[in-house]
Specification:
By secondary structure, the protein is mainly alpha-helical. 61% of the residues lie in helices and 5% in strands.
């Protein structure tokens, strides 16, 4: 009993805990003293959360409990501290503990209405940037507070533990993007209708910057519990908190929400709504209104808690409920402090979003900036030439917009904007640097390679190469194009062509950048099986990295070097099949150096170290390293990260089949099926990638069809897991070789 109660208590459900404890409390129960200690603790320390039903439970428990022992005396003192009266063991005094005569339950409920107000959490109604929402775990529900913080605002103190994971970043990205799109549309409509004046220029786009914000989730103890709350059902709560922070207006304390939001600003339903609503009713009886999606299916009326359910369809509906005056004015200082009207800063924000793979947000902001710059230029009668930076910014927006559409697999739309960038460059060569122009084209070819559009990528590299030969071009542009072409050939397993191009690039590259190219060359040689050449190239790379003076740059470049080194060591150890203990030691040291994975190179290091440990028959350690790498890649958003996760899974599957003697075969087969389904999902994550692996996906799906029907019936008369899954493993190994990293 006491363990169950503490489980409820630890989740912050004070009322549920107190009601359960007092309802089942009697003199014969086990751990009676421990239960009463917990009860008194809640009454004494968490009384601000007590609901009317809990007060009612306290009253009826004390009236009905006949013993006058030490435990009850402690209980009475706790009640006295809260309600101001000390009960004694007679009916009249007990009735007076709440100052009432309980003629019937209805009168009792009416009387304790006066005890509602003291239990409101103090100060909540005065704080901007936070709102209330329920969440459900595997057993029960709880109520949490979501707080949005502006990390750039003066005086903001952000907890060091608040490093958002990828799913949290993704949700924040969606929320900020959707809200700023709403603000831009509201500003536009307000300008057209001239219904009110904003405190910022209406013509300027409001650039959403998700990286500027972070958020905390706190339980009833006021402790951070972000790791306990998963999913996007807190989406509307995050939206409300963000709007509260930007408008400078607190969220009404009597309102909670339980709904998702998408990038277009639509409010969507959530799962387990019945448990979430019950949690609100049990723990926060001062909440009177709950925002839900207009598409949410509610439980039958007899099971529905008594709230005013406000069905909302989109952001505009939410704002009308929470901030009814927000469409008429903006709180000037808080709102303006969140808006950057500096074009250079806006471009920097956009560049950062692109780097963080906030592709959709980057698209939104690129479009806003293009529209804004175009209008500004067109509104000026003078001919824009010379040193006008806006044309450079416009070029960068076109290029990034095209790159974002490439990421999404929309090549037609991508090429349209890249064509605009090219035309802008040709008309304004004195403003837009050739270096920037050729960098953008080379980077686009690399993007095409990463989504397996190999023919288009090679054609573009060839075109760039031809253009660069006809003019005096920056050496870096020549070397970068050659190096990228080399990596394209490596992805296609054209190793000799890859080595030739990388050696040509080394002739052009600046001395302080050579370490990367020698590293790439080492990787090519390692995959060719030319291990002595690979070792020599690695030594060349390492020597140059040692000369880097900036420590942060050196650390980053070392992680790239160690990624290639770990692949080299793994491949050479397998190739030798003997006398490879020195490679084991080096790989073991690398795995310890990169225990904490914070970058994709760290994940790849753990991958190759894990595969090596399996080869050296350290199965437990190898599987542990592979699992760490897989968890990291699974948490990322970019399609290539999903593919890297697939390569880790393929390595795990091979190991699982080798461990068949020590594990249950049926269990292994079920796990293999689940892992292969995840590999299929990774291969299907993006349009172009799905098309490239189309045949492989079909073969895998066909191979799994019979095994989904009945795992046990799939075994052959002789043999085991290896024989059963060998054909599928061969397909997976073929897929693994096609993934360039």
């Amino acid at each position: 009993m006491i363990q169950q109660l503490y489980s409820i208590y630890d989740s912050g459900n004070f009322n549920a805990c107190l009601q359960t404890a007092l309802s089942s409390f009697d003199s014969k129960m086990r751990n009676k003293s421990d239960v009463m200690v917990l009860v008194i603790n809640i009454i004494s320390n968490h009384n601000r959360f007590l609901t009317q039903k809990t007060v009612q439970t306290i009253y009826w428990f004390r009236k009905g409990y006949a013993n006058n022992d030490t435990l009850i005396q402690s209980f009475d003192r706790a009640i006295e501290n809260i309600f101001g009266l000390l009960p004694v063991n007679n009916d009249k005094a007990i009735e007076n503990v709440l100052g009432i005569l309980p003629v019937n339950l209805n009168e009792f409920e009416q009387t304790i209405e006066s005890y509602k107000q003291p239990f409101l959490p103090e100060g909540v109604e005065t704080i901007c940037g936070q709102s209330c929402f329920p969440a459900v775990n595997s057993t029960d529900g709880a109520v949490y507070m979501l707080k949005i913080l502006d990390t750039c605002h003066f005086g903001t103190v952000v907890s060091p533990s608040r490093i958002l994971n990828q799913s949290e970043k993704h949700l924040l990205d969606i929320t900020v993007s959707a809200f700023f799109s709403y603000l831009n549309q509201t500003s536009k409509n307000s300008s057209e209708q001239q219904s009110h004046k904003l405190s910022i220029p209406i013509s300027f786009p409001l650039i959403g910057n998700p990286s500027r914000y972070t958020f905390l989730i706190e339980d009833s103890f006021g402790k951070e519990v972000n790791n306990k709350v998963e999913g996007n059902s807190m989406g509307v709560a995050m939206l409300i908190s963000l709007a509260s922070l930007i408008y400078g207006q607190p969220v009404p304390i009597e309102i909670a929400s339980s709904a998702r939001i998408n990038r277009h600003g639509d409010v969507l339903p959530v799962q387990s709504i019945d448990k979430k609503l019950k949690a609100i009713k049990t723990e926060r009886d001062y909440i009177k209104q709950v925002l839900i999606s207009d598409k949410q299916i509610l439980p039958e009326n007899r099971d529905l808690p008594e709230f005013e359910y406000i069905q909302v369809r989109n952001i505009a509906d939410v704002m009308k409920v929470i901030f009814p005056n927000s469409s008429n004015h903006f709180s000037s200082e808080p709102f303006c402090s969140h808006i950057q009207i500096d074009l250079q800063h806006a471009i920097e924000i956009m560049e950062r979003q692109y780097k963080d793979y906030m592709v959709d947000t980057c698209i939104d902001n690129c479009r806003l900036l293009i529209d804004y710059i175009d209008k500004k230029i067109n509104s000026e009668s003078k001919n824009i030439r010379g040193t006008d930076k806006r044309l450079e910014y416009l070029f960068r927006c076109y290029w990034k917009l095209g790159a974002c559409y490439c990421h999404k697999g929309n090549i037609t739309e991508s090429e349209k904007y890249l064509k605009k960038a090219e035309e802008l460059y040709k008309k304004n060569r004195s403003i837009i640097e050739p270096r920037d122009y050729y960098n953008s084209r080379n980077n686009y070819a690399v993007l095409l390679k990463d989504i397996f559009c190999y023919e288009k990528a090679e054609a573009l590299h060839r075109k760039i190469e031809k253009e660069l030969k006809t003019k005096e071009s920056p050496r870096n542009n020549v070397s970068e194009n050659l190096s990228s072409l080399s990596q394209l050939y490596l992805a296609q397993q054209r190793y000799k062509d890859a080595a030739t191009r990388q050696k040509e690039a080394i002739k052009w590259i600046a001395t302080d950048e050579l370490h990367r190219n020698y590293g790439y060359l080492a990787q090519i040689y390692a995959r060719m099986g030319a291990f002595d050449k690979a070792k020599n190239s690695l030594e060349q790379a390492q020597n140059r990295i040692e000369n880097i003076q900036d420590l942060s740059t050196k650390k980053i470049q070392l992680s790239y070097f160690h990624w290639i080194e770990s692949e080299y060591l793994y491949r050479r150890a397998i190739f030798l099949k003997r006398n490879s203990s020195k490679y084991y030691e080096k790989l073991n040291l690398l795995s310890k150096q990169y225990e904490n994975i914070t970058h994709f190179t760290h994940g790849l290091i753990n991958k190759f170290c894990g595969l090596a440990m399996l080869y050296f028959e350290e199965s437990e350690k190898g599987l542990e390293l592979l699992q760490k790498a897989q968890d990291y890649f699974d948490a990322q958003i970019a399609p290539m990260m999903a593919l890297l996760g697939a390569t880790v899974r393929i390595g795990k599957l091979s190991a699982m089949c080798k461990l068949e003697s020590s594990l249950n075969q049926e269990m292994i087969s079920q796990q293999i099926i689940e892992e292969i389904e995840k590999i299929i999902n990774a291969l299907s994550v993006q349009t172009n990638i799905r098309e490239f692996f189309h045949k492989d996906i079909k073969i895998l799906q066909k191979s799994l069809s019979c095994r989904r029907e009945s795992v046990r019936d799939c075994y052959p008369a002789s043999g085991g897991i290896s024989e059963t899954w060998q054909p599928v493993l061969e397909i997976l190994q073929s897929i693994n070789q096609k993934i360039p990293y």
